[in-house]
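Lab notebook, design round three. We kept the backbone fixed and only want residue identities now. Task for the bench partner: fill in a sequence for the structure below.
Input structure tokens:
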């Protein structure tokens, strides 16, 4: 292989220039080879570094997965314990306690209904909205029990008057 430099005139310069170009080519090839070796070495180091980072990330992933799995199992156990505790507490609730809870819920619903009964449109100037009596937990329960007893009495009255015989003021039955 000849380079354009070696095509000079005269045959006496040909072997010297061929030597020069061959040694130049060898030197260039050697330099390029060393450069490629250095690049290969740096790329190999970078690849090794990335491989170690990858294995470290995988190790962290496994560690986090195990922690997550363990926490999930623990949370499930705690949830089951809470459910079992709630079931046990529910088994221990007595009828009077249940009635008390129901009355409190009814009182709460009544207060919400009373709040809804207020007018939603603005009143003309000078008119005052009607005031509702303040309902506390105690008065709400008393009013509910009073309402309940009135409803119970009215049912008894209806049942008592629906029969064939009626009592007069004197206590005698009339047909």
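Proposed sequence:
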């Amino acid at each position: 292989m000849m380079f354009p430099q070696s095509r000079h005139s005269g045959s006496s310069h040909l072997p010297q220039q061929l030597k020069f170009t061959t040694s130049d080519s060898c030197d260039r090839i050697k330099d390029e080879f060393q450069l490629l070796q250095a690049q290969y070495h740096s790329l190999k180091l970078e690849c090794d570094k990335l491989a170690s980072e990858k294995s470290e990330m995988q190790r962290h992933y496994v560690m986090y997965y195990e922690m997550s799995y363990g926490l999930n199992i623990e949370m499930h156990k705690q949830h089951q314990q809470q459910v079992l505790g709630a079931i046990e507490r529910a088994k221990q609730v007595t009828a009077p306690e249940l009635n008390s809870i129901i009355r409190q819920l009814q009182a709460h619903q009544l207060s919400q209904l009373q709040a809804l009964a207020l007018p939603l449109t603005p009143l003309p100037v000078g008119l005052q909205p009607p005031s509702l009596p303040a309902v506390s937990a105690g008065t709400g329960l008393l009013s509910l029990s009073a309402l309940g007893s009135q409803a119970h009495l009215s049912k008894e009255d209806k049942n008592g008057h629906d029969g064939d015989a009626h009592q007069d003021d004197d206590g005698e039955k009339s047909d």
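Keep this in mind before ordering anything: The first strand starts at residue 166 and ends at 167.
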